[in-house]
Amino acid sequence: MENQASNQFSIQRLFWTLIVASVIFKLADMTGIVDAFSSSWKFARGNGQVGVIISVIILSLVVMVYIGWIGLRLPWLIEQSSEIRKKRAQRRKQLLRELESRQK
Keywords on this record (predicted)? Predict the structure, then answer.
C-alpha cells in the first residue's frame, strides 16, 4: 500500500512539473524570448553562434532547475493549504459545538 501512495505522489509531482513547464514555456513564447533567440541565431556567425548556443544551454539549465523546484514544491504547498483549511473547518465546528452547548 505504501508503494502505491509513493507512486501516486511522484506522479502528482510529475504532473505539476509538466504544468509549470508548459506555463513557463508559453510565457516565454508570448513575451518573445524564443523569437529573440531565433533571430539572434540567424544573424550570428562563428563565435556568435557559439555564444548563442552557450547562452541557450545556460538559460535552459536555470529554467529546468526552477521548473523542477516549483514542480516539487507546488504539490506540497497545495497539500499544506488543504490541511490548513481542514483544520480551520474542524476548529470552527468545535467552537460552534462549544458555543451551542454553553447556550443550552
Answer: Membrane, Transmembrane, Transmembrane helix
